[in-house]
Every structure is written in structure tokens, then in C-alpha cells.
Design brief:
Shape: globular
CATH architecture: 3-Layer(aba) Sandwich
Number of strands: 11
Oligomer: single chain
Distance between the termini: 40 Å
CATH class: Alpha Beta
Order of helices and strands: HEEEHEHEHHEHEHEHEHHEEH
Structural class: alpha/beta
CATH topology: Rossmann fold
Largest sheet: 11 strands, mixed
Radius of gyration: 19 Å
Length: about 350
């Protein structure tokens, strides 16, 4: 039965209810005692306002502002992937796994110079977060993603001014659209610094929609030297699948390879479909059958590690292993041992008993 249309605020509230329910407790597996005291940093670019609050957690707010750059530093209890305590793999994911110790800001020249130094000739990765994500939470997710994939401080978080508030989905959508033009300029700066095809992009949820819009604008510039980026990875993208298909032909030349991670277990995207009236790109289903030219990876079979099923790129070891092969080793889907052919076309992440 089709649900009636509901206001974006109500949609966000329902999303909160689904995401925040503690299903099971969680456990991490620390590397050693020394790791418990380790400090790790993540590069950031943000369009958020400075609040004046001395607490690093609240250094940046949710208002629009000019672009700033720097690093956020965490003390980490452990950044190992979460291990399930139940047979069905469900765990409760807390909002923050790590303690944000400091947020430093540097000028433009120093930022890019330090990123070059830390990347050591490897491709940096630009990471975009999704809806309902404060700056501190975005840094937390970026740090976890960086550690899980052993990116060695070559990840750059782009934090657009999401409110980090449960009821502000519509405002987040507006702030995301406002952020598209600055994001386009950041992409051009990445090309300038690291060369055409010299960096990767991972965009999650609503952030993936912003990346799509930025790429469409870049496609309209008709560059002679393409691709502009190497790997484009969209995880759980909250994008109208029909709109994405309209622009797919335009953006395909801009990336050497485009990977799409989808799931039938993604509850926030199921609600987004009801609100918007059309399938979301991050959902499994027949709306993906005509997406030619991209690698579609279905993660449904591996289950979920939280009730939302929306953050599998952070909390599921099978997915992290597959992303590692793609982003660090450049292995395409038909050669990755983590994948099997899907009956619906495309690929699916193998379950643990298959992968052994």
C-alpha cells in the first residue's frame, strides 16, 4: 500500500526513530593498548560557520559560510571494524565512536601543501557525508572510513552545512544545493593540484546528490582532458534514480570508473522514496537495470549492522574489504574476489561463508 505524502520534517522524525533504536550492544577489537591512546587526523574542507565555541565538537555550526580548511584530530579507542555480538549481525552503532580533541584551521596554501606531503604521491580521496550530520559527526565518520581502508591521511572530508538535526531534512536539502557551486570549485582545485584523474571521490547518501549536481555542472564545461577523477563511488545515494539516469551519459566521461553501492535493507532510503514518490538510486530494484556504464554492487545479502541499514560503508567488514580492493588496488568488479554475479545483473557482496 502506498503511503500518503508526508512533510519532510515528519520524514526526518521517522528516520530518527528507525536509526536511533538500540538493537544490540556493540564491540570493537582494539589493535593493542597503545592504539587506545593514539591520535589520528583527517583533513577537512568545510562551508560551515565558526561558532566561537571553544569545544572542538562545536567549533563549526550549521550556517553557510566561506570555505575553510584544516584538520580534525581524534583520540581513538579503536577504529577497527565493529564486530557483531549476535548471530544475525545486528549491533547498535553509537553516534560517536571517537573523541574529537582538536580542530585546527590553516590557510589555503598550507592545506594543499600538507595534503601533498601526506599523500606521498598516492591519490587523495574526497569524502562527502550525508543528511543529519554535524561537523563533529562528519569528522568521526571520515576518520573511521580513513582507518578502515588504510588511507593514511590522504582522505579529505568535504563538510557541507548540514544541520545535524533530526527534523531539518528540507533545510539540509537546501544547504546541499547551495554547496554545489563551491564543491565544483573544489573538484577543479583537486584537478589542478593532482592532475586529471588524480583523485577519487566517495559520496554518501544526500552528499551523493550534491556530487551528482557538481559533476553535471562540470560536464557542461566540455573539458578536453578527461577523466577529471579516477574512482567515483556512490554509497546509499539519496538521489532520484530517474534523474540520475538522465544525467548518466553526461557524467560518465568525467570518471574513469563509477561504482554504485545499493541495498534493499536501507530504511532511510525506503522512507525517502515514499516522500519523493520515486525510487532512490541507493535502493536495489528494477529501476537500476538500464544503468549502463557503471558497476552496481548490491550489499543486501550481507545483512545490516544497525537498524537503519544506511551506513554499511562504515560498519561492515565485507563492504570495507571490497572498497579497499577498488580504491587502494584499482581492481574492477569482475576481478574482485569479494563479489559474485547478481541474478538481477551487476554484482553482489559475498556473504561470509561464500568468501571463505
Amino acid at each position: 500500500m502506498k503511503l500518503p505524502a508526508i512533510a519532510p520534517a515528519l520524514y526526518a522524525l521517522i528516520s530518527l526513530m528507525l536509526v536511533a533504536i538500540p538493537v544490540f550492544s556493540y564491540a570493537t577489537e582494539p589493535d593493542n593498548e597503545k592504539a587506545d591512546q593514539e591520535l589520528r587526523s583527517v583533513f577537512y574542507l568545510t562551508l560551515r560557520n565558526i561558532t566561537g565555541d571553544p569545544d572542538p565538537e562545536d567549533r563549526f555550526g550549521d550556517e553557510r559560510d566561506s570555505l575553510r580548511a584544516g584538520q580534525c584530530t581524534f583520540s581513538l579507542a579503536s577504529l577497527r571494524l565493529l564486530k557483531p555480538l549476535s548471530e544475525n549481525g545486528l549491533v547498535f552503532i553509537p553516534e560517536h565512536l571517537n573523541q574529537l580533541e582538536s580542530v585546527s584551521e590553516v590557510d589555503d596554501s598550507a592545506f594543499w601543501s600538507e595534503l601533498h606531503r601526506q599523500a606521498r604521491g598516492l591519490r587523495p580521496l574526497l569524502y562527502l557525508h550525508g543528511y543529519n550530520t554535524s561537523f563533529a559527526k562528519a569528522c568521526d565518520q571520515a576518520a573511521l572510513f580513513q582507518a578502515n581502508l588504510n588511507l593514511d591521511r590522504r582522505l579529505v572530508l568535504f563538510s557541507w552545512p548540514s544541520d545535524g538535526a533530526f527534523l531539518n531534512y528540507a533545510r539540509d536539502e537546501a544547504d546541499l544545493v547551495w554547496s554545489v557551486a563551491p564543491l565544483e570549485r573544489i573538484m577543479l582545485r583537486m584537478v589542478e593540484e593532482f592532475g586529471a584523474g588524480g583523485f577519487d571521490v566517495v559520496a554518501h547518501s544526500l552528499g551523493a546528490r550534491g556530487m551528482l549536481f557538481a559533476l553535471v555542472q562540470l560536464a557542461n564545461r566540455h573539458y578536453d582532458v578527461i577523466p577529471l577523477l579516477n574512482q567515483l563511488v556512490l554509497t546509499a545515494p539519496d538521489i532520484d534514480a530517474g534523474i540520475f539516469q538522465q544525467y548518466l551519459e553526461d557524467i560518465l566521461p568525467l570518471a574513469a570508473n563509477i561504482s554504485l553501492y545499493v541495498s534493499a535493507n536501507d530504511r532511510p532510503l525506503a522512507l525517502s522514496r515514499e516522500v519523493h514518490g520515486y525510487p532512490r538510486l541507493g535502493q536495489s530494484g528494477p529501476h537500476l537495470k538500464d544503468m549502463e556504464g557503471i558497476e552496481i554492487i548490491d550489499v543486501t545479502d550481507v545483512g545490516v549492522r544497525s537498524f537503519s541499514g544506511h551506513l554499511y560503508h562504515l560498519y561492515h567488514d565485507n563492504v570495507a574489504q571490497d572498497l579497499d580492493l577498488l580504491l587502494n588496488q584499482g581492481i574492477y568488479a569482475d576481478q574482485r574476489e569479494t563479489l559474485a554475479a547478481s541474478k538481477e545483473g551487476g554484482w553482489r557482496i559475498k556473504q561470509e561463508d561464500e568468501a571463505q
